[in-house]
Amino acid sequence: MPYRRGWHARWAFGSAFMILGATAAVACGTQAVSRNRGMPAVTSTSSTTEPVTTTTTTTTTTTTTTTTTNVLRPPALPTPSTTTTLLPFTILGALPAGRPLSGKVIGVDPGHNGLNYTDPAYLDQQVWNGREYEDCDTTGTQTPNGYTEAQFNFNVATYLASDLENEGAGVVLTRSTNNGIGPCVDQRAEILNEAQSAVAIDIHADGGPPSGRGFAILLPVADGLNDAVIGSSQAFGEDVLSNFSATGMPISTYDGTDGFSYRDDLAGLNLTTVPKVLIECGNMQNSTDASVLTSTAFQQSAAVALADAITAFVG
Ligand SMILES: [Zn+2]
């Protein structure tokens, strides 16, 4: 997609961090205060005689990061290794104001990544999820024919990002391609928190029992870090439930109750400080669901439903 305002590298957390679309002026302006501090000198346009204050600003960023890490991870346990490649922080264009989501940043997390399966050691590293340690990530599931969940998630997220941009939003994605590894689940939460998303969604499809069908909305359970967004996440989940039914996918026959499943074992929900739900858009192990999930029409329909839910919640 075309760059409209150029790019900046973001180093504070070593994570992919993209903002797309409408609120670039607002998002960029907001984040310029906090994020540009951590940006490398390559973005500087200072003259050669201007004093460089990089050392001071770098120290500030490092201190902030360390404080956050200590809160999330018990000091008695080892800090997991981090091998995430530094990726660009991209701000793309400004659309006209006055649209339903103008001025809002929306977080979108396409679960897993297309090459996760190539690096088991990366996936096995332990990350703190707010209650306990868990694996950095998994490969995700796939249909009996080998269509991967990572691809599904990424397709829906891409359609959704486009829809949200058209509504005027700035969109933060936790990964920008389906040809990479990671980031870990804790970093995905951190990315969406740092972006101060008005609302965020983790997009997945399930690997449930082959006889089971349907979509489920996974909701956070209060654990301290996410206490302030339990009620708002529930409200957003209700918006997702009412809108996602328009896709024709039934409510899950096996996961949760009436479409909702409360989970305290997922980093994306345990660590969130912004309203968020995780949606399992269907069951890739079920042949009927699989034929639906792999269709472009459904993926686009799912994105529209999620965009409608986000607009209903935020607007
Ligand atoms: Zn998944």
What is the helix/strand order? EEHHEEHEEHEHEEHEHEHH
If helices are DSSP runs of H or I spanning 4 or more residues, what is the number of helices? Answer: 9
Helix content estimate = 25-40%
Q: Which outline best applies? A: globular
Q: How many extended strands?
A: 11
Distance between the termini: 26 Å
The main pleated sheet reads as:
9 strands, mixed
Output the structural class. alpha/beta
> Quick check: average pLDDT?
79
Structure description:
The protein is α/β, with parallel strands linked by helices. The two termini are 26 Å apart. It is globular, with a radius of gyration of 19 Å. Strand 5 and strand 6 (133-135) form a beta hairpin. The strands form two sheets. Strands 1-3-2-7-4-8-11-9-10 form a nine-stranded mixed sheet, with helices on both faces. It has a two-stranded antiparallel sheet with strand order 5-6. It has helices spanning 24-34, 54-72, 120-124, 149-166, 185-194, 230-244, 267-270, 287-293, 296-314, and strands at residues 7-9, 17-21, 88-91, 105-110, 126-128, 133-135, 170-173, 199-206, 216-220, 260-263, 276-283. Bound molecules: zinc ion (ZN). Residues 111-112, 140, 149, 204 line the site of zinc ion.
